[in-house]
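go over this record:
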Amino acid sequence: MKKIVTGNKAIAEAVRDAKPDVVAAYPITPQTEIVETLAEYVSSGQLASQYIAVESEHSAMAACIGASTAGGRTFTATSSQGLLYMHEMTNWAAGARLPIVMANVNRTLAPGWNIWAEHTDAMQERDTGWLQVFVSTVQEAYDTIFMAFRIAEHNKVLLPVMVNLDGFTLSHIMQPVDTIEPGDFIPPIHLPDSVDPKNPKGYGTITGPGDYFRFRWELAHSMRESVSVIEETQSEFAKRFGRTYGLTEEYRCSDADVVVVSLGTLGKEAEVAIDILRDEGIKAGSLRLRWFRPFPELDLAGKEVVVIDRDYSFGFGGVLAHSIRSKNLVKVYSVIAGLGGQEVTYDDIAGFIRNRRIGGESWFGVNDHV
């Protein structure tokens, strides 16, 4: 069925049809519409889930951890300061190998108070063990929720998944969506070590030096294994529903001399910039990373690389730019742009490419080039 909905509504509709056992909810702009819509589905009988309205984001993740430990399919959503408040529990969720799915509507961090898009909130979770995917359209947000549940709950993975979408520029924009009937695309959940009240056991959470590192190795191993599960899931989704996704999305990259790399909605904006530059005779391409964790293997050999970061690690630089450098051993031109919802148009992105200084860093809107 084709309909026009916001990114937040699309997330909520997909979650409804994925049939989670528990939804834990605490509102925060700009994700509130997600949990409000899910509350309406529960109250109207469209979703037979236990809806837990908690007093904080920390408690929302704790509720998901409890429900997942008991073998339930779980979902929550947050943004910005809320994600930071969850941080203790996000580490626990990954370390305990719990396949929680969470929508994070990317928003800048205070101070100063700002409710618009930025990726720094998600970047501060990058080393917790969560899989992270960044989406760029309402359709992609909708489709990715179904895939996220299937990937997270796969026995080769058993790790939580964070679906990131840009605040307002995607969460509140309306676009056409083709909805699906997922059927058995998401198999019934079966967690191998869930708590069973009918078969009580004693559990201890203290792990000594002789074993702790083994748990961390297993988490790392599962993150590596997730690559094949992601690819298989995306392939099966394409086969069943006709929409194709990859670890990355390339646009006119095959013969490009210069490639711009980005996350989220900036990746779609960049495609228009690429068409403009091609008309000027500049052989440019766009590479949008969908999956940030696990970080994909990229082939950038022989190309100039411009990386747009909607984040910043102080004393270090753009997180995506440094990730590209370390994984590909290439020099990049790092552009910091879009922080706090700063408008970045396709004309601006075309300018980043025209004026690139490989090996340097610049902040869009500030005359400060390093």
